[in-house]
Amino acid sequence: MDRMNASAEAFLRRFLDGTVSLEMLAEWLVVEEYDEARSAEERDTLAGVRLDVIEVMEGRAGESVVREHIRSLLPAAEQRGTRQSA
Fold first, then answer.
1. End-to-end CA distance of the chain
2. What is the pTM of this model?
């Protein structure tokens, strides 16, 4: 995928910055991955993040998996300034 829309990028950056909890991210993803205004590719990408969130919430992975997945989706210039917490 070339790039997500600006609102999705902003929300994901807020998660990386620590202003959005994992639970809030999970709720947002449930809605956004079915938003038909998004491209099928973007919905699929968000669904992939949601699968990682489910793994974390079920105790099968650490939150760092979600953070790394999200970092891989954001343009490099927009990743600067995000906390590297897990």
1. 25
2. 0.83
